[in-house]
Every structure is written in C-alpha cells, then in structure tokens.
Amino acid sequence: MLTAQENETLTRVEGDAPMGRLMRRHWIPAALSEQLAEPDGKPIRLTLLGEKLVAFRDSEGRLGVLGEFCPHRKASLAFGRNEDCGLRCLYHGWKFDVEGNVIDMPSEPRESGFAERVKHKAYPVREAGGFVWTYMGDPALMPDFEPPPWAPTPDTRIAIMRVDLPCNWAQIMEGQIDSAHSSSLHSSDMKPARGEAQALETHWVRPSTDKNPRIQVQVTNYGMRYAAIRRPITQAATHDYVRITTYVAPFIALIPPNASYNVASVIVPKDDTSSYFHFIAWNDKGGGIETEAWRRFCVMQVGVDLDEDFRPIKRFAHNDYLQDRAAMKDGNFTGIPGIPNQDIAMWESMGAISDRTSERLGASDIAVIQFRRILLDAVARHEAGAEPIGLSAPHLPLVQLASYQGVVPKTEDWRKLGASADEVAVLDGLEEDATEREMSQAV
Ligand code: FES
Ligand SMILES: [Fe+2]
Fold first, then answer.
1. Would you state the pLDDT for residue 440?
2. Whole-angstrom Cα distance, residue 290 to residue 425?
3. 91 CB near ligand 1 (under 6 Å)
4. Buried residues in 257-283 as b, exposed as e (16+ CB within 10 A)
5. Centroid of ligand 1 to alpha carbon of 140 (angstroms)
6. Which whole number is the average pLDDT over 212-240?
7. Residue of 50, 251, 271, 429 with fewest CB within 10 Å of its CB?
C-alpha cells in the first residue's frame, strides 16, 4: 500500500514530475527500428513522458526525433515531406534536419537570417537491439549509450512485440515482477510438465505445479533481482524450482528464460495514463523465434490484432477483450487468447492509474513492494542531487545482466544464479541487502 502522494510520485511522468525527471537521465527505448526502416519513409508520431514528438529517418539513414509541432505556427510535422535530408512542414515549407536545424525557410527572405536563429527541439538518437533510442535529458549529463541486454552480439536473433496501451507504466511494470500471477492468469499458456522449461508452439511448459511461490528479493544498484521459489514436480525433497527476474530500472525487466529463448519486457511511459509495452524474445546461441511467429504466439500481430502504429484494433476494455466464456467452461482459464492480452485485461481494469492506497498486499507481493520502494528511494535521491539509479558506479554493462530459471539443489544460493562473476563481485560489495528487512515488513 502506498500513500496518495507516493502513488503520484511513482506513476506521474509528465512535465516536471520527479519520476519523469529521473527517466530523462536514461536512454529511452522509444520506437522499433522497423517503424523507421526506410530512408525518407513515413515519419511517425511518438509520445514520450508527455511530450509529443515526431521521428524520421532521413535520406542518408540518419534518425531524427523532433518536437512534433513546427516552431513556426505549430502545425504537426507528422504530415511533413521527408526528402533530401530533412523533414519539411507542409504548411509554409520550413524544413528541418535531424538535429533540428532549419535548413530551408521558403516563406521568409533569405537575407533575413531568420532560419539560422531558429532551432527546433531535437533529441539525440541511437539504434540498437531492434529499437530506436532517444535521450531527453540535459545534454551535459547524457550517459554513454550501451547495447541492451537483448543485444549481446550484433547477430542475436531478436523478436519484439509492441503495443500502445491506455494505462500508466508502473502497473504494467509491476506485472513483470509478480511471478505469482503467472500460475493463475497464464495457467492455460504456461503448463506444468516434467523436464526442462521450454516454449512449444502453442504454450510454455515449466517443471512445477506450485501456485504459491516464496519470493525473495536482492536489491542491486541498478534495480533488483528477485527469486520466485517453487516446489518442482520431481526431486521436490532436495530441490527447488527457481525463477529469477532481473529489474533494470527504470524501463526493463528480464523475465526468466526457457530453453528456446530469453524473454524481456520493456515499458515506456507515453504520458501519465498511457504506455508502450514491449515483449521481447531473443537468443544469441542459435534458435530463438522469428518476429511473426512471436507476434502470432502473443496474439499481437500487426494487421490482425494491431494497426500499423501498434494500437489494438480488436480487443479492448469496452468489449471485454472478446473474452470467451464458453472456452472458460471448457477449461481455458481466462477465455482470453495470448499471454499479453491476459495481462492487458488485468492492467487496464485497474484504471488509468491504479489506486495503490487501498490494496491488500500479501507475501507473494514482496517483489512489487520492493520495486516501489526502490523507485521512490531512487526518485528522492535523484531530486537530492545524487546520480540516477542504474548510472552510478560501479556500473555493470547491461549485456551482462540476465534472468534465470532452473531446478537447483536447495543448498544453492539463488543470488549467484544467472549472475556473471563481475556482478556477483559488485553485488557482494554493496552493503545493503534489504531482503530480510522487506520480508518482515511486507505483510
Ligand atoms: S507551421 Fe510549419 S512552416 Fe509554418
Ligand atoms: Fe503476465
């Protein structure tokens, strides 16, 4: 449970909101590369942290992220002509390069020098791991860009699903660090079976029937790792089934993998009440899954479930996501196809911004509680002038961070599983491990 003020701090990102200010210190995974694949292709509208933007790829392949509204008289540049190394406003023809310079101003006398005196808002851009990233913070404080965990090598096979959702980012992120829900909400898509956890064509399997995981949290300097510990189907007397999720503040959660691919979620706030949700499958060791197959598995295909801007066209709150009650009577747990659609029904049903002041949290919510504490603490420290979470030393390269799942002897310390030797050394050196404190305070 949070106070109303804490809930505001956690969720609000627009304007001068402290959480938005913190997020502006990070590179933001703003759009998919495929949305901007073609030089001189269609510009796209983006909303990030409450700001309306337009992104385009110029004739030479350079990417630009500019303010959506022309500095002249505020017409939308999303209608603009993208040609000859710039985006031209349709209204009076002002033309901008990827850095926001005005490179043509046909409506003014050339000798006026007016074009040189106007500079349009433009944010730095990078491209990696299937995403276009932008940095919206103070240029003097821009961190080095580094590839994300799902792009450890340039030829890693990456499949990404994106969807534009009308609810606040934090309740979506809380869904990523809530292992207990998968045993209910996703029970028809994540079935228990002996053997290793793997992705089949129609569902995932995992070696446990236990719906009541024990949750343990390890606070890190980039966010946290937490383990959901379940009774395995075999060797239950001596072994645990351990699923570790790694939260990399503020936008990324690395979900436990399976034998076929690794899984990550990326949540980017558009504004206070809407978000881009991404679900990623990747494999750098061979195997993996193709983008179309991944989107079909997620029931999130462009042209079928989503329009070309990744907005739902079929399942919405107002039609109950086409929930099929007959299928439920036949044994399907939710009557809603696709893991993300099941989550979306829950996230959106909580309201545009979930009211955390009157919840009844239990022992299975310990990771969610810790997530909130970590972020509220990170915001307070950033407001007080400290380095932002995830950017302070010692900094671990993002590609070293990983999740984990496996059946392991009970004697094993889960904190060492799925963590590189560098990470173990860094985390051992951090003085505070809040796990025990949280365990006692949570319920
Ligand atoms: S409003 Fe864009 S050129 Fe006039
Ligand atoms: Fe889920």
1. 43
2. 36
3. yes
4. bbebbbbbbbbbbbbbbbbbbbbbbbb
5. 30
6. 95
7. 429
Q: Is 72 in the pocket of ligand 1 (CB under 6 A)?
A: yes
C-alpha 413 chain-centroid distance: 28
The architecture in CATH of the region 27-141 reads 3-layer Sandwich (2.102)
Model confidence band, residue 182 (pLDDT cutoffs 50, 70, 90): very high
Q: Whats the size of the chain, residue-wise?
A: 443
CA of 11 to the centre of ligand 1 (A): 35
- Distance in angstroms (rounded) separating the CA atoms of residues 248 and 246: 6
For residue 67, the CA-to-ligand 1 centroid distance in Å is 13
How far does Cα 232 stand from its chain's mean position? 30
- Which residue's CA is the closest to the ligand 1 atom numbered 1? 73
Q: HSE on the CB side for 231, CA within 13 Å?
A: 7
* Pair type for strands 190-192 and 204-206: parallel
Contact 143, 259 (CB under 8 A): no
Task: State the closest ligand 1 atom to the C-alpha of 105, by its place in the atom list counted from 1.
Answer: 3
Cα–Cα distance measured from residue 418 to residue 413, given in angstroms and rounded to the nearest whole number: 11
Instruction: Specify the amino acid at residue 198.
Output: Q
Summarize the confidence of residues 304-312 as an average pLDDT: 98
In the DSSP assignment, the letter for residue 352 is T
* Alpha-carbon torsion (5, 6, 10, 15), positive or negative: positive
Is residue 443 scored above 80 in pLDDT? no
What's the CATH number for 157-441? 3.90.380.10
Give the number of the ligand closest to the Cα of residue 339.
Answer: 2
* Between 430 and 243, the higher pLDDT residue: 243
Domain ranges of the chain: 27-141, 157-441
Residue 292: both structure tokens together? 């179309």
Tell me if 439 CB under 6 Å of ligand 1.
no
Residue 185 is predicted with a pLDDT of 97
87 lines ligand 1 (CB under 6 A): no
